[in-house]
Write a structure and sequence with these properties.
homodimer, Alpha-Beta Plaits, 11-stranded mixed sheet, elongated
Chain lengths: ~425, ~425
Amino acid sequence: MKIVNIGLIGFGTIGAGVVKVLKKKTTTLQKKRGIKLQLKYVCDQDISTSRGISVDKKILTTDVEKVLNDPNIDIVIELIGGIHPAKEFILKAIKNKKHVVTANKALLAEHGGEIFDAAAKNNVEIYFEASVGGAIPIIKSLREGLVANQVQNIFGIINGTSNYILSQMSLKGCDFKTALREAQDRGYAEKDPRLDINGMDSAHKIAILTKLCFSKKVDFKNIYVEGIDEVGLQDIKYADDLGYCIKLLAIAKKSGDEFEIRVHPTLLPKKHLLSSVNGVFNAIFINSDFAGDMLLYGQGAGQLPTASAVVSDLLEIANKIDNPNSISFSNMDREVPLRKMRSIDNVETRYYLRFSALDEPGVLSKIAQILGKQNISIYSVIQKGRRQAQAVSIVMMIHEAKEKNLRRALAQLDKLPIIKRKTIAIRVERG
Amino acid sequence: MKIVNIGLIGFGTIGAGVVKVLKKKTTTLQKKRGIKLQLKYVCDQDISTSRGISVDKKILTTDVEKVLNDPNIDIVIELIGGIHPAKEFILKAIKNKKHVVTANKALLAEHGGEIFDAAAKNNVEIYFEASVGGAIPIIKSLREGLVANQVQNIFGIINGTSNYILSQMSLKGCDFKTALREAQDRGYAEKDPRLDINGMDSAHKIAILTKLCFSKKVDFKNIYVEGIDEVGLQDIKYADDLGYCIKLLAIAKKSGDEFEIRVHPTLLPKKHLLSSVNGVFNAIFINSDFAGDMLLYGQGAGQLPTASAVVSDLLEIANKIDNPNSISFSNMDREVPLRKMRSIDNVETRYYLRFSALDEPGVLSKIAQILGKQNISIYSVIQKGRRQAQAVSIVMMIHEAKEKNLRRALAQLDKLPIIKRKTIAIRVERG
């Protein structure tokens, strides 16, 4: 029987989930896989508050150095999140030849290169299934199931909070604030929900997926990110009339010699599978050269789904211990960025536009003229309502346009006296 | 650089796909994973017909013994399908200490026990990702991603041909024969499409999934199987009116102390994700204790998707070679069947019923009376059309009923003079 000693740093929601899953499943896993996962430390600044699970007092500690320096610890689980001091803890664990399991998407997205370099140098593994898509085995599927494939594009709904908000707005017809409050009441959104709503959480995750799919370093700062806070209920309704859903998508795709990475609210045809992904669920769509289209759907967050992914990582690493000829995955993220990341200015997409314009003769012609000058051609127009001397909504779908041309046109348009409010522009993907 | 020698038996569509994928990706895989997959033999009875790919003549052979007995061969890929002689080839490969990769669902479903016993005794691995769901990494996800979970139920669309036929009937309004002919014209159905249409192919696959999810031996003969050949266009239309799709589902679930395994056409609410799975695509829905609901969707068949799964298995096994302390998966299917398989007689489901009855006063009351005597209660009734002295359709949704009670009721009903044709009964799952 192989015994693997584990030190857990971070006894929050997910940490407590890991303790629960290990408690319930250690014996089964021993029987099924011949490996005993032994939790030797549970470390947190606060070890007195109850987490709804009984833990042997002897393994509770506030002293992180004890965990990082104990020569018997094989694997350190880092679940404190954020950049500091998580980064320092992980680097020290690596230096002390410990394997690491983490769910820390921000750290891997922003400092992954440094961490994977250190891991490769010290011949240890970094596993991070729980960092993207909760229980969904997306990292494993990309690394192993699709190993023979080159991914062409990958996109999906990878933030449960914002998907919950958009789903509620769409299904219940409530506004953004009401939906957010409900998400907070149900524990789906943090008190400070900014990282979820402003798209940064999705950006961290798509950065990690991009590294895996394209074996490239990703300069996180260059990812284009837009949140959902400007999506209005009326846009959701107009999109619905046009046969679309609005979803916060994270997108990475090859496009000619370059690749695009972006996060933004997106109109998606209702018949697309991702349009049926509601509530806090996550789903990731992958297109690759041999396997074609694939979609993985599941619980993107939550205590037990995330803990389930952490424990699957523990077993993976446990299996590598004493198997010196195993493939190492910690050389990922160390390759040169051969393919250039396309600036958002040069990205071409279709667009949904909503103008708040005066209901006067000639308005549409003025809008069309300015768009036309920027090489933007209109696919369809609907005017919603007629109210003299007041602004009405003009909803327009445009053909593929270069981002910078559209911005130039909108800057001009929004200065016209006939345009009463900032024009809403949401990208459209055909999927 | 680790070099792994491979012998391929079966140079049909999938075999040629494996050759193509290896040809295109060997160098990349070498670079990415440090393993060289070397194809040493391609064996088939016919090695002269072109497969659209050039193969070094020196590796082509008609002599299967050469492949099975060559001490340098590490992995044998079996892609001839069917029970014999595939079984004999695989057992001989195992006896000669070779690992095996196979896509042979019939063999694993019907004789898996014998094969896994032999593999465990000889300390070699059997991998079979390509046997279920083509490119979808379902086997890996159940074994590894969900390793900490107990699956409660798993069900899905795992036969592309029948899903294509049902999708065409539903989307185009054509009848079964027309849809089948189209599937054959497009190469989605074999000339002899019986195994696909009669549900046996799905039964083979759900038997394999059941073994993985419940670690149990499955007596294949006891799986209840119904095909799609009796699904009429009008039933698809009536189901649509009621808010349902009809899909051929393979289902395995825990139910009290027993478990149910069955394959049959099923009414599924349109809002269920599986209802959006159209054409030749496959999708598998899994519910487990920690990870909750999950769905994996992708190409369930086809040359390159299936080959992509075979190559991922090759790399998995290649990684185990020279790592004597790796977890072996070949002890699966060797446990005792602790949980009893429920006889279809005792399964309880909701039902869609379509009676062809005379349009006479009192007909509904007679039907309701006979159902009532069997403890079957009606949820809703719609009578379609009124035609005196001719049979009309009475469409009924009933609450959960025990299968044997329903059969007893239908046997009585179908003998009544007011019932003009055999009553159509299709199970309903809420998902």
